[in-house]
Design brief:
This protein is an alpha/beta fold. The chain is 24% helix and 33% strand.
Length: 287
């Protein structure tokens, strides 16, 4: 398992009964987590009165309960600074487990010794975008939500990357890649973090089990002749690491020889030394 274990401003404090207690900077939140199927004693004081608690509804969705939590605050990861705010469903605007991947591809970019063009698809609030840009890459950031792209721009500014080589696009990812194929544009690295289900700006429907494999095939057509890496993230339980590995092998191996790895991504739990699984990633790296 790949661990995001270098955080100072974030930690999973404890887990129990379908929930996790987290520290985001100086604030503690309780949020639901479907992986937490155990029921252990909630001994930490943060369980009793956190700064924010997302309560799931039996009818679907849920709502936040707040205690002395600002509308927005920031946390840092190395030289990067991220804006956080509780919003729809249970999210804060950041998936901290992805720091395991940020560290991995940032090292590849820095050690490549050349200019790297990165395409970040389903790019959300830009954690991967600012990480790649900080490592020296030119990044194209694509997300269907205008609000998420605006948020990502704020993260770039707060991270000192206002003048970095980042192209910000509000677009349907599939249609964008199709246009890039027609234009003949190429990228040295591709990052994708597709949702299980989503809609594009014009109502385009995305279902990951049906859409992900043909989309990887599409993306393989815009890789440069000397690609550096290809990263797929998945939070969908049906897409296990072996599935991600299999897709990368079948699509990329006939075109570009490289090393393929896939594994779970996780966060250490500070109260007991165990690890909370947070989805899976598949990595292709040039040999």
């Amino acid at each position: 398992m790949w661990l995001a274990e270098n955080w100072k401003d974030y930690e999973v404090l404890d887990t129990s009964n379908g929930e996790k207690l987290e520290r985001w900077g100086k604030y503690q939140l309780v949020r639901p987590d479907p992986q937490v199927i155990w029921n252990t004693d909630k001994k930490l004081p943060g369980w009793r009165k956190p700064n924010g608690h997302y309560h799931r509804s039996n009818k679907g969705g849920g709502e936040w309960e707040f205690h002395s939590l600002p509308e927005e605050w920031t946390i840092s990861y190395n030289s990067l600074t991220f804006h956080l705010k509780p919003f729809s469903f249970k999210h804060t605007g950041l998936f901290p487990e992805q720091a395991a991947n940020w560290d991995w591809f940032s090292k590849l970019i820095r050690e490549s010794g050349r200019e790297i063009k990165v395409l970040n698809l389903f790019a959300y609030t830009g954690g991967a975008t600012v990480s790649a840009a900080c490592a020296g890459a030119s990044v194209t950031h694509v997300d269907a939500s205008k609000g998420m792209v605006t948020w990502a721009k704020e993260n770039a500014v707060s991270s000192g990357l206002a003048d970095a080589s980042i192209r910000w696009l509000v677009d349907d990812c599939v249609k964008f890649v199709q246009r890039e194929i027609r234009r003949g544009n190429k990228y040295d690295a591709i990052i994708m973090d597709p949702p299980s289900y989503g809609r594009g700006p014009k109502g385009e429907i995305w279902k990951i089990e049906e859409s992900i494999y043909p989309f990887i095939e599409l993306c393989s057509q815009i890789l440069s002749d000397n690609p550096l890496f290809f990263l797929i993230n998945s939070y969908t339980t049906g897409l296990q690491p072996a599935v991600l590995s299999y897709m990368l092998h079948t699509v990329l191996d006939p075109i570009h020889k490289g090393k393929i790895e896939a594994d779970e991504v996780g966060l250490p739990v500070s109260s007991n030394g165990l690890v909370l699984p947070c989805g899976a990633s598949g990595r292709w790296t040039a040999l």
